[in-house]
Structure formats: C-alpha cells, structure tokens
Amino acid sequence: MSIINVFIVNTFVNTILKFWRGTFRVRKRQGRNRVLYRGIEVTFTPLFLNCTTTTAAVVVVAAATATATTTTTTTTTTTTLLLLLLLLLLLLLLKLLLLLLLQLLLLLLLLLLLLLLLLLLLLIIILLLLLLLLLLLLLLLLLLLLLLLLLLLLLLLLLLLLLLLLQLLLLLLLLLLLLLLLLLLLLLLLLLLLLLLLLLLLLLLLLLLLLLLLLLLLLLLLLLLLLLLQLLLLLLLLLLLLLLLLLLLSLLLILLLLLLLLLLKIKNKKIRKAKATITKQKKQCGMPLQICVPDMRAFVTLHAEHLHSLPFQCKIKLLN
C-alpha cells in the first residue's frame, strides 16, 4: 500500500509542477526602449523539479502513511458497511411499499363488500315491506269475507224462521257454511304461522348481517392499525437513511481535509527546497538574484546589468 501511495502522489505532484513551470523574462535596457527576451528558461529549475518530486513524495508519503493508513482503512470499511446498510434499507422500503399497495387493494375490496351488503339489506327490507302489505291485504279480504258470511248466516236464520219448510235445505247450507268457515279459520291460522316463521327468518338474517358488519368493521380497524404501524416504520427508516447520509458526508469531509493537509505539506517542502537551491546557485555564479513567489510559483528575475559581468561559464549554464 505504501508503494502504491508513493506512485499516486508522485504522479500527482509531477502533473501539478508541470503547470508551475514558466518562462523567465530578461529585460535589457537599450537607451530609453526596453526589449523583452522571452523563451530564456533557467536550467536548474526543471532539473530540480524533476529530480526532487520522487524523493519528496517518498519522504512525505512515508511520514504520512504511518498516521493516515489506519484512518483510511477504517473509513473505507465504514463506507462499505454504510453502503450495504443503505441497500438493505432501500429493499425494506420497497417491500413496505408493496405491502401498502396490497393492503389498499384489500381495503377497496372490503368497501365493495360493505356496499353489497348494504344493498342486500335494503332489498330485504323492501321485500319485507311488500310481504307485510300483501299479508295485510289478504287479512282484510278474509275479514270482509267473514263479515259477508255472517250476514248471510243472519239472513239464512231469518229465512229459517220464516220458512220452516226449507229447514233441511238451510241446515245443509249452514253445514256447508260452517265447513267453509272452519277452512277459512284453518287457512288464517296457517297464514299466521307462516308469517311468524317468515318474521323469525328475517330476524335471523338481520342478526347475521349485523354480525358480518361488525366483523368487517373490526377488520378495517385492524388494517388501519397496521397501516399506522407501517407508516411509523417508514418514518424510522427515513430517519436512519438521513443519519447514514450525514455520516457519509462527514467521512468524505474528513478524507478531503486529510488530502489537503498532505498537499500543503508537500508544497511547503518543495518551496523550501527551491529556495535552498536558488541560494546555492547564487553563491556559485556570484550574481545577485531576486526570488519572487507570487501565486505559489518560484521565479527568478535576472537583470541585464549583471549579465555582462558574469563569467563565461555561468553564461553558458544559463543559456543551456
């Protein structure tokens, strides 16, 4: 792991230092006019930058890996575990959503069943009312018949008193009428018994329907309770997801801060070494050099007045 880290840091530093290189300008005065000679590049800056990138990267990474390896390994393992937990939570959310859809379908079916039962109740009530009306009509007709028969009997009795001769015939008629009355009474009793039975059956049906309605209401209450529990579970899962996302963001911020600290250490070491090398070259060539570090870049400005006074060997080094 340390070798891989050294390689990554070396390539990263080389790519950054390619952008740090620049051309150096030499200003030469000729009377009042100033001529800019571009394209003259100091020889020791690219050599120094190319040679010291690998050594600086090895030293910095060897010092930093001892402190950063443990943190990076722990952060990577925690991020993988958090990602797995996120996947599991997403699967649970999908399952809960499917269960909610199924329960909504069940609620719709139960509502349809309730509507059908209410329609059946209305039909049964209407039929009961119709039956009662019919029975009342029949009873009225029977009563009218009975009244008519009684009137006839009275007339017959008067006729018997008046007509003694026709007593036999009247007796026969009376017997017939009595038989008819008996039959009518039996029919009335049977009808009354049938009505009682029908009423009992209707009462039983009403009780059964009421029991079914109570059961359906209990089922609806249970389903509503389950829906509330599942909504609470969904809220808890969403809170857990938010907490996990916050943890991931905090871990990413920690990693970015560690990388920034490493880069700042590397840049500081590069700048110090560049200053040391420039002072060494200044002592060797014997010319005054001015060091400027704007925007974290090391530039050297050479004055034309001191360029003529340099020895021949220093001029060749600079031009090379």
Automatic annotation (TrEMBL):
Going by the UniProt record, its keywords in alphabetical order are:
Membrane, Transmembrane, Transmembrane helix
What name appears for this protein in its UniProt entry?
Answer: ABC transmembrane type-1 domain-containing protein
Top-rank taxon, per record: Eukaryota
UniProt source species: Dreissena polymorpha
Q: Where are the transmembrane segments?
A: 47-69, 81-102, 108-133, 140-166, 172-197, 204-229, 235-264
Determine if Nucleus is one of this entry's keywords: no
- Lineage of the source organism? Eukaryota, Metazoa, Spiralia, Lophotrochozoa, Mollusca
